[in-house]
Amino acid sequence: MSRRDDPVWWKEAVVYQVYPKSFADSDGDGVGDLQGLIDRVDYLDDLGVDAVWLNPVYESPQADNGYDISDYRAIDDAYGDMDDWERLRDELHDRDIRLIMDLVVNHTSDEHEWFQRSRREEGEYADYYHWVEGSPDEPPNNWQSVFGGPAWSYDDEREAWYLHLFDERQPDLDWTNPAVREEVFDMMRWWLDRGIDGFRMDVINMISKTEGLPDGDPDAGLTGAEHFMNGPRVHEYVGEMVDEVLDDEEVLAVGETPGVSVEDAKQYVGPDGDGLSMVFQFEHVTFDHDEHKWDAGDPSLPEFKRILAKWQRGLADDGWNSLYLNNHDQPRMVSRFGSDGEYRRESAKLLGTLTHTLGGTPFVYQGEELGMTNAPFESREDLRDVEALNYVDAAIADPETDAEEYADVREAVEAMCRDNARTPMQWTDEEHAGFTDGDPWIGVNPNYAEVNVERARADPDSVFHYYRELVALRDRDLLVYGDFELLAPDHPSLFAYTRTLERDGTGREAGDSGVPTERALVVLNFDDEPATFDLPDDVAVDGLELALANDDVPEVPGRSFDLGPWEARVYLTPDDGAATDRHPDQH
Ligand code: NOJ
């Protein structure tokens, strides 16, 4: 079956990710909230996005900014209450914007009632988490937490160890226990009954652990990962979840799956897999890491292209790609993959061009549409993220750390820490970028006077207006469903490709243009230096017209291109209207 034989709204959608803590604060406590987001729903509508993925707003002690949930059926006071949430849902739905909620079920907070009861060994709760008895001096195995240090903590109350693949305040649920699975499925039904349109599933490929919890290979990256990433029963659990709760293709289910290969992804996605809509793979954002993210090097463009092309081809017929270059866990994409100084604006547009012209569903992370950049973190006191703080504290605690190593730690934190993505959304050039009237929970990026929504909306040449055009381009079936072909794979600075959509298969006639297939040609110069690109002989340019570019460029392509620094061009065969009105009930 060809993937365009099976159209569904989320394949044609652009999803906007809101990190609520940093989006907009309505009550002056320095923390973003639901009312702040409700006040900005028109902004999202103006951008043209089709869905919002809301990072966790559930009740939480906030050890990991809401990824430590103490009540799945309540909204955290910092964000508002259930009435606010319902108003948000309705305001979005009134504008045909769908709402995707975060599903965090690998772990809970240690303050969740289940954990409290489990620690007291109350009835069936005793087995809701991974508990191991033994000497308080020696953890049950050598697994490492993703946030650094051992993945085990000793609980004095129960006198046993419990597993936490993340922070010690995030104990892992034991998915081998059918009662745990039923609790999770019930909770998911509860949210679906409240009218949500899907879930983004936090580290869903980590829910199954190897039976017996054996030691991991100490020389293989994150110790123990082979026993908890894509573990032995994960497809059984995810498949059960889909059968029990998500057996409606209209519900978007996007799994966050660190460390998956294309082959792994196929097992999660699509009708021949477990039935998820798509996954977030990490290969294109981690390929330049050495041992861990703090060792990230300079991403090489040919390697980046090779990886993205592999995913484009790999999921072309029996799967679906998600498209992202940053999110709340990654540095700002314009700082990591673009050029955030002189060419900030151009490179932000170029990177957006990439994510909106590949096959798959684009995810836009808040502020990306302004070209927001990484922020300077002058000292430990400026940091908020538990992962970065653990990393810095480990360096401080190590008596062997010398001045040079401190400088490396600082550089790594500035380049890679998650707080880069979490600085407040920049709305205006007023104090605190218009994010709050109070003291923001994390510092505002000092470039807010130049980079902000108000200014971007007033400037027709801004990244924001370019993004509006990118989002609108996704109305073309060609860009959603077309076949992908990479050109010039080894070119060190150019990323060029075609997209092609054969009309047969869609059941539609060839357009009035007489062009039998729809075609796109995308050429992107990932460099501060100009570059020349000669089209391969087998790529036709007849019928192609300029659809979008971030500079003044010819309306029709020649066979040789001279591209300026970070220049991006999209040429398309004309739209004869076939793509409009494709799902009138869904748009
Ligand atoms: C992935 C989430 O995106 C991240 O923010 C969180 O810290 C971990 N999972 C643990 O829930």
How would you describe the overall organization of this protein?
This protein is an alpha/beta fold and 587 residues long. Among the domains are: 113-163, Oligo-1,6-glucosidase, domain 2 (Alpha-Beta Complex), CATH 3.90.400.10; 177-320, Alpha-Beta Barrel (TIM Barrel), CATH 3.20.20.80; 475-572, Sandwich (Immunoglobulin-like). The protein has helices at residues 34-39, 41-47, 82-94, 113-119, 178-193, 225-228, 234-245, 262-268, 283-286, 301-314, 333-336, 344-357, 386-397, 403-416, 419-422, 453-458, 463-473, 477-481; strands spanning 15-18, 51-54, 58-59, 71-75, 98-103, 131-132, 152-155, 160-163, 198-201, 252-256, 278-280, 322-323, 361-365, 483-487, 494-502, 517-525, 531-534, 545-549, 560-563, 568-572. The strands form five sheets. An eight-stranded parallel β-sheet has the order 11-10-9-5-2-1-13-12. Strands 14-15-16-20-18 form a five-stranded antiparallel β-sheet. A hairpin with a 6-residue loop joins strand 14 and strand 15 (494-502). The longest helix has 16 residues, at 178-193. The radius of gyration is 24 Å and the shape is globular. Residues 505-512 have low confidence and may be disordered. Bound molecules: 1-deoxynojirimycin.
